[in-house]
Amino acid sequence: MFNTIYIEEKAYEYHITRQLLHKYVDSEVVTIRHYKDVFNRPKQNLAVQKRYPSLILAVKDGQFLYEGPVVCQSFDHPNFYYTSFLLNCVFDCEYCFLQGMYPSANIVAFVNVEDFKEAMKDLLHSRKKVFLAVSYDTDLIAFHNIIPYLQYFYDFFASHPDMLAEVRTKSANQAFYNDYQPLKNLIIAFTLAPDEIIKKYERHTPSLKSRINAVKAATARGFSVRICFDPVFADPEMEDAYKEFYHHVFTQIDPGSILDVGYGFFRMPVDFFKRIEKVRSSSLLYAKEYFVKGNVVSYPEPVMERIKTEHLEILEKYIKKEKIFTL
User: Fold this and answer.
1) What's the fold here for domain 4-326?
2) Tens digits of residue pLDDT in 293-308
3) Bridge partner list, 260
4) DSSP class per residue in 139-179
5) pTM for this entry
6) Which of 15, 64, 211, 261 could lock 119 by a disulfide, CB 3.0 to 4.6 Å apart?
7) In 3D, which of 90, 95, 70, 97 has the Cα closest to residue 82?
8) CA separation, residue 148 to residues 44, 113, 282 (Å)
9) Neighbour count for residue 230 (Cβ, 10 Å)
10) Cis peptide upstream of residue 206 (ω within 30 degrees of 0)
């Protein structure tokens, strides 16, 4: 998958690095001082990099955990944090905020997993109970066959039940659910969308059918599963598709097997939106008219309220109202 692997000098001593060098023997290896020397360089072509990504192995330093941003759902957890073992994602969703967040489409993988665990221990010591999103900036399940981060953190989560970890994914990869037992404090959050949306905006991602099969595999094994309808697009051409989609999902998936549901509209920080608008100059998604509230680009409130009311009327036929979290 990776023609070139960049490796920080200090990353060579880590297990993940040695494992990947053994696995990708045909990839060109380039030693670098710091990942930002490659990842943050100017005038990169994100479109080309998405088609032919390089992998950058790095040692994370500084801050490991961050307070959850207001544009992300906390699911009513007061101590909401996130972390990033990977920067960027193997998928290429047109609406993805990462295009505005990072100057590169190459993938950075941090190899010093034990340092992440120490940071998590420190956070638990000060906060007691924590909701930690570990897959907002990437898709760990999709990346599992390359670097199995969930394998490296499984025992940690098992021994720290006060840390509730959420892994968000669009992937159809079922390897993790087949190989591991469920944990009460590990949530697999599947992002589902109508096939029309997947084809239009979510390039290289699995079909709805494949994702539903993965949901069934996870629930059958006893994993806590969250369904995320996020982002929802206020597109008049898609209104009927969404309504049929919700009915279809819960005729395929037993609502009783689901922990809860997350629901949110397309939204993005203004500065990210402006950067992506320049990169994807031919995209109709970024040519539409939006509403800006504070520092967030989204749809006008009356439009979102109307659509949300219609959608929740359908969803509440399958899922209890108190189990549907909206943003």
Assistant:
1) pyruvate-formate lyase- activating enzyme (3.80.30)
2) 999 999 999 999 999 9
3) 226
4) -TTTTTTT--HHHHHHHHHHH-TTEEEEEEE-----HHHHH
5) 0.95
6) 64
7) 70
8) 28, 11, 36
9) 22
10) no
